[in-house]
Amino acid sequence: MPMEKTFNPAEAEARISKLWLEAKVGAAGANARPGAEAFSIMIPPPNVTGSLHMGHAFNNTLQDILIRWHRMQGHDTLWQPGTDHAGIATQMVTEREMAKAGNITRREMGREAFTLKVWEQKKKSRGTIIGQLQRLGASCDWDREAFTMSGAPGAPAGEEGNFHDAVIKVFVDMYNKGLIYRGKRLVNWDPHFETAISDLEVENIEVKGHMWHFKYRLAGGETYEYVEKDAEGNVTFRETRDYISIATTRPETMLGDGAVAVHPSDERYAPIVGKMVHLPLCDRLIPIITDEYPDPTFGSGAVKITGAHDFNDYQVAKRAGLPMYRLMDTQGKMRADGAPYEVAVARAREIAAGSPTDENEVDSLNLVPEKYRGLDRFEARKLVVADINAAGLAVTVMVSEIDPETHSEHLRLVPVVEDKPIMQPHGDRSKVVIEPMLTDQWFVDTAKIVEPALEAVRSGRTKIMPESGEKTYFHWLENIEPWCISRQLWWGHQIPVWYGPKLVDGQLVLSETTSFCAADQIAAQSDALDYYPCDAYLVADREAYAKAIAELPAKMAAGETWSVPIYRDPDVLDTWFSSGLWPIGTLGWPEQTPELQRYFPTSVLVTGFDIIFFWVARMMMMQLAVVDDIPFHTVYLHGLVRDAKGKKMSKSLGNVVDPLEVIDEYGADALRFANAAMASLGGVLKFDPQRIAGYRNFGTKLWNACRFAEMNGVWEGHSTQAQAPKATATANRWIIGETARAASEVQQALTEFRFDFAADTLYKFVWGKVCDWYVEFAKPLFDSPDAAETRATMAWVLDQSMILLHPFMPFLTEDLWGQTGTRAKLLVHTDWPTLGDLADAAADQEMAFVTGLIEEIRSARAQVHVPAGLKIDLVAISLSPEARAAWERNEALIRRLARIEGFSEGAAPKGAITLGAPGATFAIPLAGLIDIAEEKARLKKSLDKLGKEIGGLKGRLNNPNFAVSAPEEVVEEAKSNLAAREDEAAKLEAAMTRLAEIG
RNA sequence: GGGCGGUUAGCUCAGCGGUAGAGCACUACGUUGACAUCGUAGUGGCCACUGGUUCGAUCCCAGUACCGCCCACCA
């Protein structure tokens, strides 16, 4: 059956995809030579939140190119696929879907039932993602598909695996090594999801804010002289004050202030340091303290200190030993729990006066006055400002106003409220304002594990490219902060820690807790049994635990038999804690599997620039901490895919491009080739559909070259040949050399991860060399004695084209492969060529003469408007022996491609166009056809260009310093260049003279 | 505020010491034993600016301007 006129992606992709899947072409080790080196890539696992976007298509195209390239080279390859449970994001998507469907909420449903819902979401999204990857042509080992929560308790059937075991084991090991700790710290709190998040999950966004100025009055009605001086020490302002002025952008937090801080060197406030001020609206006194933190030149120089709601204040409060009163609940509302305000504030006064307390009591005290309790933090802000203004405690300024009715001017005091852009932290998922919140959380002590991760890159054991990524990596790791890994979510790996009452000197202390970190509940209970002098039993949660503990003393007193309750930490781990283990976890660790031995450390990680801290740095730290080895040898970082104008693709802008739609319209190969061509190092990747269309056309071009070959019997009896055929015809020798050159350039480019160079090389070779020239050369050769050799050459050249293009355009090339000759193997498993240098200098030179001459003739014809269909004559004015030989061997070709009728040798006729070629001068007699003026213009243009070049070369050669300083070969090159240009110019001058004779 | 990158043809980008490149777009013409998803020929650049190094700079160095991205606690 003859070939179709064009490649049909829709039909072929489905057919070939099925073929590959059934043959398991991507299985680990498929097509590996015995004893072959390993090459492995772990897919960056997509989140099971939905479907893949263009960034994924780009990222996975590059990985597939690498994997296919290595697999064809006979290496032992593994491309490990899988997905990420993506805790917060997937929980969010599931809740949103539930809300859309009008179902009950997560809390109404309960943890266990909700988790099952998320597993359903996972299943759905996973199916979409795998389908998309397969449509893109990704040749992963699909039988090894992994999931970051496989094997977790409560996982439905079909979700077996041991990733969960690996995660838990790492946690337990790190806990035992003291690399993980729990503590009450100020963390970024997301009031929407009601969970802590890490620093990296916070986006600072500039918003319009305000700065308010409040007066905190000195206790006991005291006053002081407030004096401002200029740089020379001259007094510029002086007044008697009974207050200190503070500024804030977050007035509602003043309810939790523990002090006012001033810089120790700030003379303005020296008289009142150590004194107490009234905290407005709160019936509390707080001290004026000194700390290095306040900047005396900013605002009033005095800062209110709210240790529980600001990261700077937290540090100051810790240094000064101030109590940190938490004001808000998990939803960012002003607290409404605990004792009435009067009771709480009375206790706070006692504590301020020196009454002993502890962290837990301070946290339990609700110092929010009754009228603000339960208000949203932004509502509370408005009310606090209004109340302060009403109390006359706002710093004010005198303004003059014109009464609109009486037109009389009068002065009025108004509170100072500055409009001020402020950087406000937002949750990267929830988009709500993040609240610094004092809570108990788990942390990885990153300082203890960061050094090997830095060293591995410094020493080059792991290479990050481009180099700028390396700098970013160092900068972040050198300034690493503790990593908060606990999340108050339901979807994720539950922290393997159980709590029970503490034993001090053999005595149970019910008010305190101790922890048991163990791989599972049975192990935890066993640890508890070893620890307690009695039995221990598991209770459902913290509330049940508190109830059981409360009942214990009575039981003990009554002499009943009793045992202690323990409960499990309800929190789950940050998603990145588990994705941080992706390289070893997917290979079966902690089991010492053959795959782990074979494919770890992995060869390359291909991922986006944006994820270097979240994932790359953490994988480095975690793998080195857990198995004491680097996770990958090379990290290839790429930019983010944007729309054609460089705008970020977002649903709200409506410029999101779905990769499946692109594949439907242009085919997967066109998208893939465009991705490769765009993959220059660094920068933004602009997605332009026109470019995709261009590469679709490129595929058609190759297709039609193969179709042309088919029409000429090239494929009859053809079977795959690794070695180039022996050829005598110049064109055949030339294209064989060009093919080998392209192959080695592609090899070099891919070795250096220059996908763009590789794509460019292939495009230019297939279109510019094979289709533009070789196919044309072959036409006359098919009618010559060299026909058989030409068929063999063309078959070989096109085979090589398919092989070299296969990693980039797998569907089209596999389809062609199957339609063209007898194939021992699928193309996906065909040997990658190692051709060496097959260039034939003589053939190259001769073909350069031929193509040059043809282009000259065509150009001349077009410029003097010779009708395209008209055949013309050619006269050789002079021919060197080499040029004569080249002419004679290629006459048929040149005649055909340049539309030449008669050929003669002799003197240049009058009224002719003159053309130069290496070692030869030709003329086209066009009496009657030629437009003298136009031809003169053409010659003049050429002469002008030559003149410029000759001028430049002469200038250089006449510069005495050039000959002295420049390398000899550069000088020689300039000389021979000059000679060639001058020769050419002389020919054109002669032509000009002849032209002048007739016109 | 700190760090990193960019500025080359109308657009998107390569190049990076020795005569400026590609694709797309544009213009003209379409004859050829595959291809109109095509062919042939063309138009189009003070390589951001200012200095320096060099025989020679788009390329190296310094500075300036503008544009990105990342990080950052000025209340």
Structure description:
This protein has 999 residues and is an alpha/beta fold. It has 30 helices and 34 strands. The strands form twelve sheets. Strands 6-5-18-20 form a four-stranded antiparallel beta sheet. Helix 2 crosses helix 20 and helix 20 packs across helix 21. The longest helix has 31 residues. It binds one RNA strand of 75 nucleotides through strand 10, strand 14, helix 7, helix 12 and helix 21.
What labels describe this entry?
4-stranded antiparallel β-sheet, alpha/beta, 44% helix, 4-stranded mixed β-sheet, 999 residues, RNA-binding, elongated, 20% strand
SSE diagram, text form:
Elements: H1 9-23, E1 38-42, H2 54-72, E2 76-80, E3 82-83, H3 87-100, H4 106-109, H5 111-136, E4 146-147, H6 163-176, E5 180-190, E6 195-197, E7 202-217, E8 224-229, E9 235-241, E10 243-248, E11 259-262, E12 276-279, E13 284-290, E14 302-305, H7 311-320, H8 341-352, H9 359-364, H10 377-390, E15 396-402, E16 409-415, E17 417-427, E18 435-444, H11 450-458, E19 463-465, H12 467-478, E20 483-484, E21 486-487, E22 497-504, E23 507-517, H13 521-531, E24 536-538, H14 542-557, E25 564-568, E26 572-573, H15 575-579, H16 582-585, H17 594-599, E27 602-608, H18 612-627, E28 632-638, E29 641-642, H19 659-666, H20 668-678, E30 685-686, H21 689-711, H22 730-751, H23 755-781, H24 787-805, H25 810-819, H26 841-863, E31 872-879, H27 881-898, E32 900-905, E33 912-917, E34 920-925, H28 932-958, H29 960-965, H30 968-998
Parallel strand pairs: 1-2, 3-4, 11-13, 19-28, 24-25, 27-28, 29-30, 31-32
Antiparallel strand pairs: 5-6, 5-18, 7-10, 7-17, 8-9, 11-14, 12-13, 15-16, 18-20, 21-26, 22-23, 22-25, 31-34, 33-34
The structure holds one RNA strand of 75 nucleotides.
